[in-house]
From TrEMBL:
Chain ranges of the F-box domain: 26-64
Protein name: Uncharacterized protein
Domain F-box/LRR-repeat protein 15/At3g58940/PEG3-like LRR: 117-240
InterPro entries linked to this entry: F-box-like_dom_sf, F-box_AtFBL13-like, F-box_dom, LRR_dom_sf, LRR_FXL15/At3g58940/PEG3-like
Pfam family, one: F-box
Lineage summary: Eukaryota, Viridiplantae, Streptophyta, Embryophyta, Tracheophyta
CDD domains for the chain: F-box_AtFBL13-like (cd22160)
Database matches in Gene3D superfamilies: Ribonuclease Inhibitor
Entry superkingdom: Eukaryota
Length: 506
């Protein structure tokens, strides 16, 4: 890390200024390392280090990261923006890597905000984070408010160095065509007009990642990406508690190569217009299980709300070559198996499943494996399953014949299981124990058995923990099924039953 030399008033060692200097190992570290340490501290704590000794007096002035928010107000009693500009003057005029400010909603701050953005442009700031309505500010009760911010083009440097911009709680029409280097844009709780995102993506030629979190929470959201945009990744993050249920989301993003839906799908409808040539799709809907209406299984049958949004998007994106599904999504697919809905034909070659490997996820896993005829790589990321209630369905007995499927997993060559949370994280040499690896994941061995049985071209099994990795091309000793008494019900082609099954026989 390049760093300007410290002032002669701040000597590298200060043996005479500290009675405990022999124990002060941190102060003896190189300047670059000390500045890296200070960059990980809030600004108010970094400034406090100036009181430690002469050695530390001026080191904080060389911080590359400046972060101010409500904690600064609590500690100093001073306002954020005036303090920020004083800090800029004290930072020895060197370039700053990132600036992060969290502000209390105040219409009078617009002029200072424009000056801040202009400063970031001139001083080669690479990352800028601004929250215009800080939820952590407890001086008054927080409520949703959006300040309208206009970024004046005339005050920006022609060649801005800004590569990452994060804006929260504002009303934004567009960004001026001056952010030539901007690669990542994060918008959270932002009100956008129908053509805002189209204008932004057209004005930012280097933009590769656009992340939208709870944007337009009370209105429809149109995500239109400019036809000439180079955007490659689009992330939609929405919470059940933040976004109104009667709103809709529409996406038109022809050139986007990767799309991710995270947290939840709370809106009434999700629509993808036109042709989306997307090679990677991700569904991490870990918040959906918190809604009682998302999916319920009762003695009267299966009721679902929001599940149609996920299933519709999944079918629309079935041409993606890389697909990631979280636990809730897998359990929704298990319900599709219960309803005798066959999977569509997926073009997926690399499948990532984040699963608890429990009974009610095995059918959803089978759904995907039966539908992915071109699958080459399978990654199972093991973790806690979604907290859905299936007590009634757990007592169901299954009758009938199996459905007919064509070739299954003929192209699958590599399967990896990752378990970062289990107790079994390491082993001696090649003395790997499959039973201990799958402890707490009851259907792990069953899945291994199915994979080695039906994936005739399988070349490698990989087991990864947080500390170690085990690979094998010898599968004979894996997939022990001594605990499964009804193996005919547990084979991949047998998870579907005939119409007789619809009666929920006990």
């Amino acid at each position: 890390m390049d760093c300007p030399q410290l002032s002669s008033k701040c000597p590298r060692h200060s043996a005479t200024s500290d009675d405990n200097c022999d124990l002060d190992y941190i102060s003896n570290l190189h300047d670059d390392i000390l500045i890296q340490i200070l960059d990980k501290l809030p600004m108010e704590e970094a400034v406090d280090t100036s009181l430690l000794s002469k050695r530390w007096k001026d080191i904080w002035r060389y911080k590359k990261k400046v972060e101010l928010g409500y904690q600064w107000v609590q500690r100093t009693g001073k306002k954020v923006l005036p303090s920020l500009f004083k800090i800029f003057r004290a930072l020895r005029e060197q370039n700053i890597h990132s600036i992060s400010v969290s502000l209390r909603y105040d219409l009078s701050m617009l002029t200072e905000i424009q000056s801040l953005i202009a400063y970031a442009s001139v001083k080669n700031v690479e990352e800028l984070y601004i929250d215009f309505n800080d939820r952590n500010d407890r001086r008054s009760r927080w409520r949703r408010r959006y300040i309208s911010v206009l970024i004046p083009e005339c005050e920006l440097s022609q060649c801005s160095s800004l590569v990452k911009l994060s804006l929260k709680s504002l009303q934004l029409e567009t960004l001026p065509p001056r952010f030539e280097a901007l690669r990542e844009l994060f918008l959270e709780r932002v009100k956008l007009a129908e053509d805002s995102l189209e204008n932004i993506t057209n004005n930012c030629p280097s933009l590769a990642l656009l992340s939208l979190t709870n944007c337009n929470p009370n209105a429809d959201l149109k995500v239109i990406i400019g036809a000439n945009s180079n955007l490659r990744c689009l992330v939609i993050r929405e919470e059940l508690s933040e976004v109104q249920k009667m709103t809709e989301l529409c996406i038109r993003a022809t050139n986007v190569k990767a799309i991710e839906f995270a947290l939840a799908l709370p809106r009434k409808a999700y629509q993808i217009e036109g042709t989306l040539v997307c090679s990677e799709a991700t569904f991490r809907l870990n918040q959906m299980h918190r809604s009682r209406q998302a999916m319920r299984v009762t003695s009267l049958g299966i009721n679902g709300k929001f599940t149609k949004n996920f299933l519709g998007l999944l079918r629309t994106l079935r041409a993606a070559e890389v697909l990631t599904l979280s636990s809730w999504c897998i359990q929704v697919l298990s319900i599709e198996v219960v309803k005798l809905q066959q999977p569509p034909i997926f073009e997926v070659r690399h499948l990532i499943l984040e699963t608890g490997l429990i009974r009610w996820e095995f059918r959803g896993i089978a759904y995907m494996l039966l539908g992915c005829y071109k699958l080459e790589n399978l990654l199972i990321v093991m973790g806690a399953p979604a907290e859905l209630k299936f007590e009634y369905m757990e007592n169901v007995k299954y009758y009938g014949i199996t459905m007919s499927f064509g070739k299954i997993l003929q192209d699958l060559t590599i399967v990896e299981f990752r378990n970062y949370s289990g107790n079994y994280q390491t082993w001696d040499g090649d003395d790997f124990n499959e039973i201990q690896f799958f402890a707490g994941f009851e259907f792990g061995s069953l899945l291994v058995w199915n994979l080695k049985t039906y994936a005739t071209g399988l070349k490698k099994l990989v087991f990864t923990t947080g500390k170690k990795r085990f690979e094998t091309s010898q599968f004979e000793g894996f997939g022990d099924l001594f605990s499964f008494t009804h193996l005919d019900y547990c084979q991949l082609p047998c998870v579907y039953r005939s119409a007789e099954y619809r009666g929920y026989h006990r």
